Each structure stands twice: as C-alpha cells, then as structure tokens.
C-alpha cells in the first residue's frame, strides 16, 4: 500500500531494503531458502524497475543475484545491465543513492566474476555520480579506479577524467532543460539563466553532448573543444569548481593503476594524449595549472617506464616544443618534455636514435630558448619561469654532449646566458633568485663542456654506472 506521508514512504523503502538484506543472510546460512527467495526477488525487481523512488532497493537485489545467482543457475547479467544503465543516468543527483551505489560497486567487486566487464564498460555512467557528487565520492573512486581501468578503456577513461568538470556542467545543463521542473535538485543560483541554455539546442552541439553523457564506453574519442566553449558560462559554478578540485587526485590514482600494466603501445597513446590535452581543458579557475602539474609528472613516469617514447614521438615532441605562445600556461609540461628529451634521446636508450634527430631537437629547443630569453614579457608572451629556462639549457647541453659538433654553439649560448639572466632592476627578490639560479646553472654546464669526454660521461652514463651495485651477497 502506498504511504500518504513522506516519513512513512521513507520507512517503507528502508524496510524493503532491510528485508532483502535479511533474505540474503538467510540464504547464505540455509541454501534451502534460495529457490523460493529467487522467484520472490525476481517479481520484486520487475516491480521496482519502473519506480525511480524505490531505486535504492535495487542495489541489495543486485547483490543478492551476484552472490547466489551461480548457485541457482540464474544469470544476473540483465539485472546488472539495467542497474548500471538506468540508475546513474537518471538519479545521479541523489547524493544518498550515489554514495550507496558506489559503495555497492566496491563491496561487490569479489562477486562480479565474469560480469566485471559490465562494471568496466559502465564507467561513463559511474563518472556522472562522481561529477555531481565529487567531494564525498572522491576517496571511493580512488579505490574503485584500479578495477575500472584496463588496456581497452584506459585512453577513453583518461579523456573522461580530464573532462569531468565539463561533465558536471553538462549534467547541470541537462537538469535545467528537464521538463520535470518540480523534481529538479537545487543548483547554483548565481546562474539563473545561463546563455548556453538556448545554444545547447543547436544540432551541432547535440552530438557532442550525447557523447559526453553516454552511458557506456564507446571506444571512440571526440574533441570537445566546442562544447567547452558552449559551457564556459557555467565554469564558475560551485559544483563545477568542486569537481575540478578532485580531478588531480583521481588522475594520480588512474596513472598508479595504468602503469602496472601499460605496454609500449598504450604508453605511447597515453603520452600523446597528454601532449594533446595540455591546450584542450575546460577553463575552470585554477584547474589548468593543477592538472598540468599532474600531467607533467606522469609524462616523465611514462618515459621512465618506456624510454623509447621520445624517439617514437619525435615528430609530436618537436611540434610541442616549437610553440612558445603558451609557455606560461603549460610551463610545467614544457619542462617535463624538455627534461625527457635530454634524458632519453640517446642511442644508449634506443638504437633508433640518430645524430640527425639529436640535431633537430637541439635546433628546436635552441630557437625556443632564444625566443624566451630575448623577448620582453608581454600579454602575448608572458615571462618564462626560471625553472623552465634551467631545464632547457641543461637539455641543450646534454644533446651537445652526444653530438659534439654542437658544443661550440651551446658554449656560446651559455656564455651569453650568464649576462642575459642578469636584470639591471629586478622587480622582486623571487625574480632575482631565479635569475641567479639560471646563471649558476649556465656556469656549471659551461665548465663541464670544456671537458667533452667528462660531459658525455656525466650526462649519458651507461646503465651499469647509473645503477651501480658495488656489493653482491653470495648468499642471495
């Protein structure tokens, strides 16, 4: 019987959930109850599927079928498909249900068995729960991500994580356009009528919105830059900003899982993705800088895992370092790319490395460094961080030590750097300290280059010297 008061309705829902949990316990203790219970729960599941208000009870039912379905020769796939397709898509805005849904996923991991692929393929829908409820669900997803990611979904999942704040804005927009106004949850009142409401009905944006709001992994990747521009008015919403703050933590968890199984092909794809997405992020305040710090460190981790990436992605890396226009926005990534080039562009890491490649990278980095040090800071070309300058001069020196015809050029440049880094009227102590560090680095490198054999030994040590083992226990 349907309750007349909200309190009674909530009590009925709670009792229904508890009843299913009790049946689960009874069937574990006495399997003779199993067949009678299965028929009852199948009928209950059919009734609840059409009632969103009682969706919470679907979780213990699904867990019951996961735990007992194999013993009773009952396939739980259809129940799981419905659960992962409909619930996150329609009820992502219910914080209680979102938390219980994610906890259900975590608690049921040992039970999924061959149905684990359903969980993995449903990550776009699960990310809707995360995007809308990111602060309370972040730690749960950090634990869940290693189970969701695999070689087949890693690239698509990384795109989805980087676009998570954009997904939050798209979900907000979807709710604002929903005809069921009385059922909509509260949103940021500062955006009573965002300009993107009408523009989102344009057919050219519909396909991108549908891709972003997809329920399952599609195996394809769409460039969402037009959608980023469309949803830009919503980038300052509190919920979007909160979601953006959680992304760096989630990215760390993602890469911790991926590096456990990434082969050379996948590492190549991920490294290329990091280069491409540096300039293609949803513009939430402070989001880009935080994400770049994570991406730059993970790019180095991928290169350390597969040093041949630098040779294999030579064309893309040359294009990346060939642009100076966005040094300030992607300075951390530029420093990591330059460091990886200096560290791994060597025949000792990859036999395919040639002198011509070293010369091409040297010329590209030399031109970049010259432009950064000779140009006055402006709105179009902001001041370059001294850390980036220090990494660039170090990389040029490393490359010159491997192609010694370049030593006179880099020596001349380093000599000039000692005067270029000096500022006649520094505007801050921090800037003067940075310039002093660059001058000191240039002097150190110049001293090393005066002894080319020592420079080559220092900058490109053999594997035995870079990882020495001076003592070996005969008993181990």
UniProtKB/TrEMBL annotation:
PANTHER family: AP-5 COMPLEX SUBUNIT ZETA-1 (PTHR46488). It comes from the Eukaryota. This is Protein KIAA0415. Residues 11-128 form the AP-5 complex subunit zeta-1 ARM repeats domain. Residues 140-476 form the AP-5 complex subunit zeta-1 C-terminal TPR domain. GO terms for cellular component: AP-5 adaptor complex. It holds the Pfam family TPR_AP5Z1_C. The gene is K0415.
